[in-house]
Amino acid sequence: MFRKRPPPEEERKVRANDREYNEKFQYASNCIMTSKYNIVTFLPVNLFEQFQEVANTYFLFLLILQLIPQISSLSWFTTIVPLALVLSITAVKDATDDYFRHKSDSQVNNRQSQVLIRGSLQNEKWMNVRVGDIIKLENNQFVAADLLLLSSSEPHGLCYIETAELDGESNMKVRQSVSVTSELGDQNNLASFDGEVVCEPPNNKLDRFCGTLYWRDKKYTLSNQNMLLRGCVLRNTEACYGLVIFAGPDTKLMQNSGRTKFKRTSIDRLMNTLVLWIFGFLVCMGVILAVGNAVWEREVGFLFQSYLPWDPPVDNFLFSAFLSFWSYVIILNTVVPISLYVSVEVIRLGHSYFINWDQQMFCSQCNTPAEARTTTLNEELGQVEYIFSDKTGTLTQNIMSFNKCSINGQTYGEGSDPLGPQPKRLDFTPFNPLADPDFCFYDDTLLEAVKVGDTHTHKFFRLLSLCHTVMSEEKSEGALLYKAQSPDEGALVTAARNFGFVFRSRTPGTITTTEMGRSVTYTLLAILDFNNIRKRMSVIVRNPEGRICLYCKGADTVLLERLHPCNQELMNITSDHLNEYAADGLRTLALAYRDLSEDEWEAWSERHRSAAKAASCREDRLAAAYEQIEQDMVLLGATAIEDKLQEGVPETIAVLSLANIKIWVLTGDKQETAVNIGYSCKMLTDDMTEVFIISGHTVQSVRQELRRARDRMIEMSRTRDGKEEGVEGCFMGNGFREGQGDSRGGEKQLQCPPPPPPSNLMDNISGEFALVINGHSLAHALEADMETEFVSTACACKAVICCRVTPLQKAQVVEMIKKHKKAVTLAIGDGANDVSMIKSAHIGVGISGQEGIQAVLASDYSFSQFRFLQRLLLVHGRWSYLRMCRFLCYFFYKNFAFTMVHFWFGFYCGFSAQTVYDQYFITLYNIVYTSLPVLAMGIFDQDVPDQRSLEYPKLYEPGQLNLLFNKREFFICIAQGIYTSVVLFFVPCAILSDATQSTGVPLADYQTFAVTTATALVIVVSVQIALDTGFWTVINHVFVWGSLGLYFSIMLALQSQTLFGIFPNQFHFVGSAQSTLLQPVVWLTIALATAICIVPVLAFRFLKVDLKPQLSDTVRYTQLVRQKKRKPAGRSVGGAWRGVGSVSEGRLGARGSSRRSGYAFAHTEGFGELITSGKNMRLSSLAMATFASRHSSSWIDTLRRKKHSHTNTPPSASGESSPAPSCVSGSIPPLSNSSSVLCGSQDAPIEEETGAAPDTQTASSSSTQNPPAPAPASEAADGSAQTLNAGVLTPAALRSQGGDSPGGWTISLGAVQEALLRWKGRASASNSPVKLAE
């Protein structure tokens, strides 16, 4: 552990079977350690980490002060007990977390591996494997370290691996050993192998390896194709041998894992700031009281010196004032009690358990519950503004299905009428015994065309059965298993199989198929391989009759350009079909063929052979040869494949968008694929104002494209908002003045003074825009001088899709938004390639899906379906934020009310640091008397039920704007606390100073005053929390009223004769409680103080709800009215995404006729060459996943039509909101309260579904026939409101006729007053400005 770290490597040298040679380089062992502590280091390291917290250090300092008798008027246990409790709880939590890390490390390190030692295989733990060892791997085993593949049981040294843990791709990949070592299959040969590898040092580049093997005086070049990386799984290979090159922390998997960042919420950071402010306030109070002590001792105190001399160390009034300062620091320290931090941790733990226990986030299919893997970020879930999502496996199921096709101008697979009878799934078994039983297709006209022998249809499916790189394994007659390099290919070959053209097997030179029941063997002459530039692949085959034919499939954008001119008419028809398929979000390919003569083949074959053998520019020469032969082709048709979305993805994205959350998709897939999914999941729609594509290859071109996009946004926003007249003098041409660059990223200044910053200008953009950017363009956009420009453009868009991005770029995009927008970010993914993004974001969410568990292990929260993100944020996140904010507001209030009484008492006790309360009351106040009620509120409180949180996404906005707890709210809390302390001190002081008992004995004694003030304090704070609690449970009742009863019980016990008799020196208030509480004047005093403290709060809140209700207030009112007037028939109250579950299955809403390529192809270049070499002829196939039913989302189109007509500058960081436009004259200024839920932009009453107006009766009566859908609503014509299925108004229905405001909820004051009048039982208003739509 304390070994000296070796110097950085410049190159690595590894000699096989020679541990002594390799150990001199001090290479890392294969033992991994992700834990932080061990038994020896736990206590010192953990305490050191805990005392880095400002609060813990502060309380340790106070404890030291309390140990000094000259300045301490409180016992040391009042601080050490809670401090020890906090440190212990945190230490136990840290130890538990680290124990599980140790357990996970131990599980991995103790896996068994077969290591070749002295000529024989021995079982060794992974942790004991060393660099230079030769390891044997067997089928389905994890690779223990980064290995150089030496030999394999497969021909030609091939093996097949799955890399889901590394790059998130579940398709198979091929690795091949160097030819000279592929024959070393025998253990004896491997034991004598002494080759030396010189390669690059450890790095995190998953797709690159550069090295050289020196053996028998020859050297052989090594590449990534020869490497097996840790985290991969060996598939369909009986056994292989590998040489360990990198081990443990040096492996590429561990190099990519990155350091785990300690994540803190914005509330944590604010609390640290507030603690410093409070400490400064404490010092100021101490100084004031110390100055008062000095003045008092000098002017008055000397009169008491004869019978009340100073303690020995004190010899003058200045030294007395100095000691008094520290005494008051100790007494007043309870403004920040240490129990605050304990309570926060307990509340967060409770919130985490609620997430774990949520049955609506449990996936029954995979038996996976949601899991909160951290307890520190729950309230941050309620403040998310940006979501960064992976695509494959996160938004989609990564399951492809053959959906539609176009053959010779005829389209097949048309969707049925959702209102008509549902089509019957075709049964292929009678027609084709080799059909895949899991294949789904519904259009029987295509099957009939195949049966009747249509030539074009047969050619179409023959192409699909031949033009691919799929491997087939037939374990029994007719039981075919296909192993496809990509799910797309598997779906196409399976479609051909079911329609009678069955791919059976292949050899290096042949492809065997069964065509309409007849076995046919084709000679495979060449495979023209796929790559990202060609965007197509071709095969050249000779049929049994001797005819040579080229079959080609690829992106329509490149294939249609290479057709013979005679195809023009067919190409136009097929292009229309491709448009329709792309509009449905399907992944499309065009198919074509060309007949070749023998002379053409011979001439081209010679050119191809010379290009393949070229020593230089091999790729360019091959590409030129491919280009030559792939011309003048005949179009056959097109295919359309659906990458099935996960259930509820479109609905989830739509609802999150309504919550003002921006979603960015960061994917390694191609642009066409990502855009298809964007349209499928309704991130992109044809209703959007414009979708910008950034694809420049240079810094300058990317900068120009971003500027053009920004200029276009400004121009269209001005036109849309009708602001041409108002800004004509400010904007010129494209909205910017020529020649004036801006230092913030090259943007240009506006001509009219004062010039607003570009960021503010872009913040006022209205309209729905989207941005699609490629990986190479993103690399330039992420450069330092381009960041600001890219951020200002992208953040003005409603949706952003980044394609072909690397794992590192994903993390860089997240860091960029964190840096420039100061917004809370959430990253969600399911693969190891998402780990860096998940760790970089404020909140990381892992999907436990098809691509391993690396993302889950690195995440803060995990579940199995993307749709659960909606509930995680809008319900659990919003509740957690609301509860934490209410908890903090109340906590600071009650402690200032408690502590400031000492400050006022200082002016009456000669500034002598005398406490008002008994020291036991001071100790128990925060631990016993007031801890449980506020914990109950912080754990269980709700403002609206979970269904309403999903129905009204705008309820989420206060968290994004940080409205519920900020510096302003904090000052309101402490102001209320100080006011309460003034009342609690001066009211009893004024009354008791002249009061007497019934016996005539004065009540103006210290102990009576202390008991009266303490009792009034406990009652006032208990009543206050009762007012603050919005959701009462049995636990709340028990804790609130039980704590009040516990106070009286403990006080009477502590001031009893019994304890005084046992400990006379410890309990000085003997009998005070009994005698004081028997006096009527004392209870009248307590009642008066309570009324003076509580009545203003009640009045303020009543007026606030009466005059300016917030959205949560109106939602609660609507809920009450709905419950009161609802008929006995119940309704289902599932999540918002489930509200459309009854809609029949069907295609997602079709787009318009915009022209775009839906091309999607997920091959890896080089696979075709591998097939023709004959090196991969033994390969079993991947079982096809079951096809999930498609979730209908017909209502999403309506939701996504939301257009912004008016936008305001976002509120300032302080949480103050600019007033939203109102449909009444003037605007209502925002009003806030420390214990309120929403303010500013959230105001809007909501009409109940059974309004008094006669025209609502029809809607109400008709709506009772079916359960209502939850949240979605379309914008009403002319700004009028609309109804849900049940006739309940949604928030969208309450927008003013002037258009939307970002987060604005506006309605006339008359509707507010009408709702409140009915609420308070008064006569209903005759007219309401808001009417239900037809």
TrEMBL record:
Under the heading SUPFAM superfamilies, the entry gives:
Calcium ATPase, transduction domain A, Calcium ATPase, transmembrane domain M, HAD-like, Metal cation-transporting ATPase, ATP-binding domain N
Question: What are its GO biological-process terms?
Answer: Golgi organization; phospholipid translocation
Q: Does the keyword Nucleotide-binding apply?
A: yes
Cofactor(s) this protein cannot do without: Mg(2+)
Q: Report domain P-type ATPase N-terminal positions.
A: 14-80
Catalytic positions? D390 (4-aspartylphosphate intermediate)
Membrane-spanning ranges: 74-92, 274-296, 316-342, 887-908, 920-940, 970-993, 1008-1027, 1039-1062, 1082-1103
Sorted alphabetically, the Gene Ontology cellular component annotations on this record are: plasma membrane; trans-Golgi network
- Check the record and name the Gene3D superfamilies matching this protein: Calcium-transporting ATPase, cytoplasmic domain N, Calcium-transporting ATPase, cytoplasmic transduction domain A, HAD superfamily/HAD-like
Compositional bias of type Polar residues: which residue ranges?
1255-1266
Region feature (Disordered):
1198-1227, 1251-1284
Record key words, sorted: ATP-binding, Magnesium, Membrane, Metal-binding, Nucleotide-binding, Translocase, Transmembrane, Transmembrane helix
Q: Which GO terms describe its molecular function?
A: ATP binding; ATP hydrolysis activity; magnesium ion binding; phosphatidylcholine flippase activity
Regarding protein family, the annotation reads: Belongs to the cation transport ATPase (P-type) (TC 3.A.3) family. Type IV subfamily.
Give the protein's recorded name: Phospholipid-transporting ATPase
Species name: Gymnodraco acuticeps (Antarctic dragonfish)
Name the gene.
atp8b2
